[in-house]
């Protein structure tokens, strides 16, 4: 298995014609909470570790099984499974 960081995986999937991106950010990374509650990423190491690897894959009502399988196969390919 090969390690591929989130940014690189998003790039590789884009090259495959698969849209993906980061949609959800932990509260401690949002400016309001950082400014009003002095939250720092280093105070949340587990959340940071998980968040650094999370991204959203395509999901929509017309996504076919074939398209979903294509997404899985491309991810497996990029991870060298």
The pLDDT mean sits at 94
Rg, Å, rounded: 16 Å
Low-confidence stretches: none
- The assigned structural class equals mainly alpha
Beta-strand portion reads: under 5%
* Main sheet overview: none
Beta strands, count: 0
Shape: elongated
Helical residue percent band: 40-55%
Order of helices and strands: HHHH
Query: Count of DSSP helices?
Result: 4
Distance between the termini: 6 Å
Descriptive account of the structure:
The protein is mostly helical. 47% of the residues lie in helices and 0% in strands. It has helices at 6-15, 31-37, 45-51, 65-78. It starts with 5 loop residues before the first helix and ends with a helix. The mean pLDDT is 94.
Please render the helix and strand layout as text:
Elements lengths: L5 H10 L15 H7 L7 H7 L13 H14 L3
Please provide a brief summary of the model:
This protein is 47% helix and 0% strand. The chain is mainly alpha-helical. 1% of the residues are buried.
Keywords summarizing the entry:
mainly alpha; 4 helices; 0% strand
């Amino acid at each position: 298995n090969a390690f591929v960081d989130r940014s690189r995986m998003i790039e590789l999937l884009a090259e495959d014609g698969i849209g993906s991106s980061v949609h959800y950010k932990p509260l401690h990374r949002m400016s309001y909470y950082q400014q009003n509650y002095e939250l720092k990423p280093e105070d949340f190491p587990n959340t940071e570790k998980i968040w650094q690897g999370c991204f959203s894959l395509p999901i929509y009502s017309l996504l076919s099984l074939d398209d979903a399988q294509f997404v899985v196969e491309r991810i497996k390919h990029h991870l060298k499974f």
